[in-house]
## 1
Amino acid sequence: MTTNDVVVRTEHLTKHYGKLVAVNDLNLEVHRGQVFGFLGPNGAGKSTTMSMMLGLIAPTSGNIEVFGLSVKNNLADILGKTGAVMESPGFYPYLSGWDNLKVFASISRQGTDDRIKEVLKLIDLADRAQDKFSGYSQGMKQRLAIACALLHDPEFIIFDEPTNGLDPAGMKEIRELMIKLGQEGKTIFLNSHLLHEVEQVCNHVAIIKKGKVIASGAPNDLIKHGDTVQIRVTDIDKAVALLNEEDWVSSITREGDLLILKAPAEKRTDISALLAKNGVFVSEMKARNESLESIFLELTEEETVD
Amino acid sequence: MIIVLAAFFCLIFFAVYGITASPPERMPHEGLETMRNLITFPDAFKMIFSTAQNIGAILLTIIVASSVGNEYGWGTIRQTLIRKGIRYQYVASKLVAFIVYALIVIAFIIGFCLALLTTQWINGALNWDFMTVSYVGELFTMYGWTFYGLLVYILLAILLSLVGRSAIVGIGGTLGYYFVESIAISIFNQSGGWLAEIPNYLIGHNIAAILPTTMMQGPFASSGALPSTLYASITLAIYCVVFLGLSLYLFKSRDVTT
C-alpha cells in the first residue's frame, strides 16, 4: 500500500468538548477504493470524526489528512473531490429539490444541469424534482442529500446514516448504490448503526468506542478474530477452572449446560486435550457462527465493563 | 420580507396621498402643502430615504438575522460548508447580498416608483426642473449616509445571529439594542455631566449625526448635541470593523455542529 493509496489518514486525532473527550487519539487509515464502515455506539465520536474530515469541526490536537492534504490548510481542494451525506440533510425548505441542487452546484461551481438530471435519475427522484423540499418525505430528503453529494462526481464519499428514513426497498437501492460506487473505484466512508448494512456493503470496518478504534479489519477477519466455540463437558465447573488458567482463552460464559469459549481456532484441539488430561471429557464441540453485530456488541460491551 | 417593506412604503405614501386628496376641513393650508411635498418630487426623496433608514433598519435586521440564523436551523450552513470550505467567502457573500438588497431594491426602486406615481397624480405631470447638479449631489449624499447607517445594523444583526447560531438571537439582540439605545440616549442627554458624553459612543446618536439635516431623522433624531460628521463617521466605521471582524473570527474559528 503506497502513500497515494491512502485517502484518509488521522494521526492522534483528538477532540475535547470541555471535559468530554469525543475523539481520543484516533489513528485511522482509509485506502483508495475501500468501502469503509465506521461503527460505534451513540456518542462514540463517529460524527465528530466525520465532521473533522470535512473541516466543520477543528481538532483539539492531532492531524487529519485527506488525499494526502492537511484538512486545516487545504480544505477547499479536499472538498472539491469529496462528497458527504450528513445526518439530517439540510436544504432550503421553500425551494424545490431541483433548485436546491442548483444552489449547491453553483456554490461549488461544480455540477451542470445535465449532471443534476443524471443524479436525480440515479437516486430515483426525477419525478419529484420540481416539488418543494418542505413537502418531501424523510426518505426523499435523504435521497436529495445523496444526489447533492454526488453532484460533482467526487472520488471520496462520506455517508452518515444514509438509509435513515428509507423504506426497505429504498434501503436496498441505496446499499446497492454504495456498492456500485465502490466498484467504480470511489472510496466510501460509511457511518451506520445498521450493522447488517455495514456487513453487506463494506469491505473494511473500524469499530470505535469512546473516541478510540477498538477493532479494525475486513468484516470476515473481525468475525474470525472472535472465534467462538461451544462445548458440552462432563464436569462444567472443573472445565471452567481449567480453562480460566489458559491465557489463550479470552472469555468463558455459561449457557445452561454449555460453555461458550472465545479462543483462536487453532487451539480447539488443545481444549479437548487439556480437559481430557484432567479427567473432563468433551461430549460436544461446535464452532459458533457470529455476525458483525455480535462482534460489535461484544467489543463495545467489554469496554463498558472495563 | 421585501413585500412587508413595500407594503410599509405603500401605506405611508397612500395614507399621505389620501389625506392630501381629501384633506380634513380644518387642516391648515401650510400643513397640507407640507404633506403634499412629502410625496412629490423633490421632497419625496427625503421620505424615501427616511423610511428606508427607520423602518428599513428594523426590517433589514429581521431579513439579515433570518437569512443567517435560518441557515443554522435548516442545516444548510453545513451543506454549504461541505461544498466550499472557505468560510470568510460565506460571510462576505451574505453581506454583499444584504447591501444590494437593502439599497438598490428596497430603498430606491420601490420608493422612486411610488413617488413618481403620486407626483403625477397630484401635479398632473412630472417636472424635472428640480433635478439640478447640486440636487443630484445631495441625493447621492443622502443615499450614502442612509447606506452607512443601515450597514451598522446589518453587521450587528449578522454578528448576533452568528454568535447565537439562530435568527431569534440576531433579531432580538439587534432590535433590542435599537430600541433600548434610543431610550438610553434620551436619558443620558437629560442627565448632563459625563453621562451626557456616553451617547457620543453609541450607534444611534452617531447615525443621527451623519444624516443630513434635510432628511427626516425619525427615531434617530437626538435631543442632545450631536458630534461632528467626521467624528460620527469614524465611530461608526469602528463599529463596522469590530462587528465584521468578530463575525469573521467567530465564524471561522467555531465548530459547525448539528
## 2
Amino acid sequence: MTPDTHTHDNSPDEDPIRYLLHQALPRIGDAAQPRRDLWPDLLKRLDEKPAPVPWFDWALLAGLLGVVVFIPASIPVLLYYL
Amino acid sequence: MENESNDVLNAFRHGSVDAFEALFRLHQRAVYGWILRIVRKPTVAEDLTIETFWRIHKAHARFDPARGFEGWARRIATHAALDWLRANRTEAALTVENFPEPASTLATDPAITGETRTRTARALARLPAKLRVAAVLALVEDLPHKEIAAALGISVAAVKLRVFRAIRMLRKDLEQQGIRP
C-alpha cells in the first residue's frame, strides 16, 4: 500500500461530513495484518471440488434445447426474455 | 511493497502453486489491510482475503506480468469486498465495536456524542455499496482519488462523483436524524 499523499485538516469547518466520519470511524491505515496464517485455509479452498450442477438445471437446459430444436420460431421470443 | 521477480510472476501465470504461495506470502498482508479498510471487520477481511486469492488463482492464466501483481490483486480484492457488502447489507452495518486497533489517534471531540458517532457510522453503512466504498476510502482513510480509481477500475472523475453523491446522501440521512453536519 502506498502512504497517503495528502492529509486533511480535521476541523469541523473544513469539511463537516469528513470530520464527523473521522470522529465516528477510526482510520485503519497500513498496519493491519491477519491474526492467523491464511495459507492452510486457502489451500483447502483450492482443493474443494466445484458443487455439482443440480439435476433440475440439466432438465431445464434439455427442455430449452428441445424447444429451440423443435420450435425454431421460439428463438426470438427466448432472446427477448434473456 | 516488495517486488516479486519476473520468474515468480511468469511461473504463477503458468499455474505454479509454489509461485502462487510466494505471491500469497508477499501480498496477503496488503490485500488483507485493503479489504479491512473497506469492510472494517477483521474476521470478514480474513475470509475475503482467502476469497480474493482463490479468485486470483482461478484467473492466473489471464494475469499479465507486465502490469504487476499488486494492482491486479487490489482490484480483485476490491470487487470481492464490494460483492460482500452487496450480499450482506445488514451484517455490513458499521458499529464502533467492530473496529480493530485504529491507525489514527484523532482526539475525540467532546461536542460529538457517542450517539452521533453511532448514527454517523450507521448512515455510512446505509449507503449503496459502490458509494460506501468510495466514501470510506476517500473520507475515512483519506486515500488519494487516483489510488481509489485504480482499485475500482474507474476514472478519477467517477470516484469524485461517487464521493460527492455519498456526501450528499450522508448529509440528507444525518439531517433526517436531527444531526446537522
